[in-house]
């Protein structure tokens, strides 16, 4: 057998992982050797007889664990984008071991003592040193022996329960699917959509992982809508108890670490810092958002001719969109061809702003034939990094869209970034791939994350690119969405795939007008989820929850967000963001999206005040904000960019919440 490709660095350009050589049987041996090597390196650092210096402690830790890092980076990427049964089995086996491995390092007393002895004058080193110190404290380094033992048990159980939660959810997507025998009940769905779900003479509509299923907008039969909706909100009922277990374990863990709640623990190292700050922010939005949604509901009931129910919302929202705004989103699709959107839209906007250029590297392979690789250059022709693009949905890919790094930029290793974007666009059987406007917007959003990774210009991998607080990371990506509808960008990419004609101006006008509609729904659905996450993680240690569904209802009621017609985007039983990862994930962090949007709305305003899409503006955003990654206080970086602290008003205006 040839040598395991993870044992030595890739020799491909930019150290792109050599996907052509990597096979499933390589992962477990590479993880095992990676963890063994890493522990040995860490022991050597902890046992160094000389005085602790930045170089022999913090920098040495940054350099350690290379095999493990290479393996985990590729494995996590594949586990999201192309998870075969074999990959899922490895995942179940390896996650608890990785949790234990992390504890073995963070609870190494000799190592922690040495970190505390390090002193440095250099600001970038001092920032990283403090990060390490905080990481160790937050992982339990200061606790007594007995408390550390309890912490390890808690971490292990959290990982196990969360894995079960997420596997239940995966099964429920088809296990709780809507099964229909009479095709008439599916009236409203397109012929190709119906064909795609036909199975042995029946029709099986799987559940997507959020409350409001897209088919609800099209199904004309009210009973079918109701059935689909109820299956959606009641899926994986066994997860209610697991959620209670996770929330109580997290509360105990927080108490052990010296925090009153998991929420307090969770925000302490975020830009929000305190639970009060988060509650104040969310509190400002709830009242106006619910009022907005109630007004929309009246409009929908008027259109329907009867008082609508939750399962009717999307269907009549579409009707109102057509009646009031004369807008049908599907008319735009012929103008949004994937390749054109990417090259003449996403890349074009980045070229105008930052002067960067792109070259196809078809000679470099991904892990799937649909994956494409591009080389990115600075305006002066120097190399910037690689961009890997995986646009299509497949049964082995998880839902949603995301960015991840395959190689972190760092001066320490002299490495340039390799960043990746995943989308979930349906691949047509033949012909061009035509996108919805939402998908266009998502492509710009994810590329905003990619730019954050590509422009990283820092010394240490730990703080490279998107390694910033969770409640900050969505900010640069949200800003990049603004270019999707910027007139000169739109004119450049939105052309009919057959005739090359530009998209008619009046269609765009209608789209803009219609965009404001249904904002109440979107904001309430999101806020309810953020407040539900919050309630679960404000549990006091030792507090018990008898009935998870009753807890959920009471929490939403108390927060002032309970509204029968607009349920939370995720109920407790399928809230994967907060319950499918034991110690990480977005627990007590779902507020982050709207928290980041404050900075986003402020920055969009800045670009508009300064003449929009031009080099000087892009260069300023890049040098003040994108290039520093997490190597300094990110709010100081924001002030360097914007010239002052953020205000909430631009966000309120954008969301139609100014009273
Ligand atoms: Zn994002």
Automatic annotation (TrEMBL):
Check the record and name the Pfam families matching this protein.
Peptidase_M3
Q: Which family does it belong to?
A: Belongs to the peptidase M3 family.
Source taxonomy lineage? Bacteria, Bacillati, Actinomycetota, Actinomycetes, Streptosporangiales
Select a single GO molecular function from the record's annotations and give it.
metalloendopeptidase activity
Sorted alphabetically, the Gene Ontology BP terms of this entry are: proteolysis
Q: List the CDD domains.
A: M3A_DCP
Identify which cofactors the protein needs according to its UniProt entry: Zn(2+)
Q: What is this protein called?
A: Peptidase M3
Gene3D superfamilies in UniProt:
1.10.1370.40
Q: Which UniProt keywords apply?
A: Hydrolase, Metal-binding, Metalloprotease, Protease, Zinc
Which terms in the GO cellular component ontology are assigned? Answer: cytosol
Query: Which residues does the UniProt record annotate as the domain Peptidase M3A/M3B catalytic?
Result: 216-656
Q: How is the cofactor bound?
A: Binds 1 zinc ion.
